[in-house]
Structure formats: C-alpha cells, structure tokens
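Q: Sequence in, structure out?
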Amino acid sequence: MSSTAYDPNNIFAKILRGEIPSHRVYEDESVVAFMDVMPQGTGHTLVVPKAPSRNLLDAEPAALGQLAIAVQKLARAVKAAFVADGVTVLQFNEPASGQTVYHLHVHVIPRFEGVPLKPHTGDMEKPDVLAANADKIRAVLKG
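A: Exactly. Output:
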C-alpha cells in the first residue's frame, strides 16, 4: 500500500466525473481512455481505471485485470489508427518513477521508426489536433 491516501480531486478523477473535458476514445464499465493533452507523440492516449487508486501499488487486482485488457485493445487501435511501427506502453508509480498524476493510468503511445518521443514539457496540444486523433482511434475501435 502507498503511504499517501488517494486524492479524489486529482485531475483524472475530475475527468472521469466529467468535471474537466477530455477527448474520450473508449469507455466501458471499468475504464476510460482519452487523449493526453500533453502528448509525447502523435496519438498519445491514456487508459484510466474508474476504480480509485493512486497507482499500480495500491490498485485492486480485479481493476488491474480490466485495465490490462483495455490497454491491449487501445494499443492495437492506436497502432492501426496511426499506421505506427510499434507502440510504447508506460506506467509510473510514485514520484521517484516520474508519476505526476496520482490516479493509476497507462500511457499508450504509437511509435514510428526513427522518431523519438517528445519530452514531457507541459506544452498542450491544440484541441483540434486532439479531436482529429481521437476520431481516428474511435474509427478503428468501431471496426
């Protein structure tokens, strides 16, 4: 267990409750996936469980199972949507690892040969770009 309690007012909890807008691409009973507003690459998507936990260390096993299934579905979808050469899947736990939002989440980033990830500078992507990228992923998921 984490030594710090879960904060229900973290930004992802607010997104899950609809208090902050997001470009959602997928939702089921357990998870929500949406575009990262500060992407490290084209199509950078976040997969977030609805169940509250700070990270992998304090998550319920059942929530982890549903999250893993959704991450695989989204990884396949973003790879196809962006005709990517591969997919990077990242997940951080606690400050020393680089975690900055304390609600469990997984980064799914389409990757292209010879194109490095952009640094996480805090620069926000244009809303129209996020909307267009979300449309591409939703189209693949609809099949």
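The helical segments are 11-16, 61-81, 127-142.
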